[in-house]
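User: Predict the structure for this protein chain, please.
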Amino acid sequence: MQQKRSPNAAERLFFFKCGAGLFLFFALIFFLLQNAKAAQSGVAAGVRLCLQTLIPSMLPLLILSAFFQRSALGFAASKLLEAPTKLLFGVSGAGAGVFLFALLGGFPAGASSIRAAVETRSLSRRDGKVLQLLCFCPSAAFTVGAVGTGMLGKTEIGLLLEASVLLPLFLLAIPLRFLYSADTVPPGQNRAFLSPAKAFIDAVEQGTKAMLSVCAFVCLFSALPPVLSAFPFSERVRVWALALPELTGGMNSASKSLSLPALAALLSFGGFCAHCQLLPTLQFLHLSYLKFFLFRLCHALLSAAACFVLCRLFPMLRPVFAQPGTALAPSSASSPAVSVCLCIMCALLLLGSSTITLEKQKKM
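Assistant: Here is the predicted structure, written as structure tokens:
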């Protein structure tokens, strides 16, 4: 009689994961049905956030970043910025444009720039992994304008938080040089840039797809904070439970009760909604989410430490309450960065054609 084989450790782990996943799935369904009105109000707030803030402010930057990487302008910039980018981050010169768009446009703009640069072979896949681990930060307009000026009442606090988020990235770039030691693709080698018209059409398509994905995740994760607020959590736990799922909406309550180092850690971690927005790029780069998650924890801890040191070096009075009537995020109509980007997009179409003509004349 054949003896029944007992499951090994791998099978037991698999069944445990399946059981835990099913439990969490049905528990989430149950809580959403029990708090249907709260979930609906959260989704409605997410839709308003997308229509009033995210789409007007982020869509031009997403299109601009994709156009920059697909046109000859990205090729020219990578040649000029090769030396400083190699020194700071250990990647080729095209990484400078990626870091700039990540700084201006936040989480999805950086991921969109990385994917476009790898697809056009201006960055190697190794460089894309390094930059995806590094170029993950909220936009400067959100940190300085919305959080610092709008929620905390001082632009100087926003600048301090922005410095706390960015300074650890240069420190974290050091171990990445050894973790990913493969040679990078030299700029100008195997580069396939497009004509201005083709690059613009592809950029609009890519930017629109990225924007729709961002809005879908924001609306989905906006349903969680109202549902979680129904639980009898303590005030400190409630603040983190509201901010971790979706950062943009959760920072309004977090800024009223958390310390500045905790806010810096929260901004560096980004929230799970921002993590999900980057999952397609992580899969494209063959970068595991576990490694990305652990890197975000290290970034958050270092940002909290940097903010603590900066607060000691530059002491400032933090207002107890935010200014009344302040908006959650700066309006796109009054954002200088977005206005400049819209003007640059028009200029790029004109300058790109002359750049292509010069490149063809050199080859003839």
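The radius of gyration is 22 Å.
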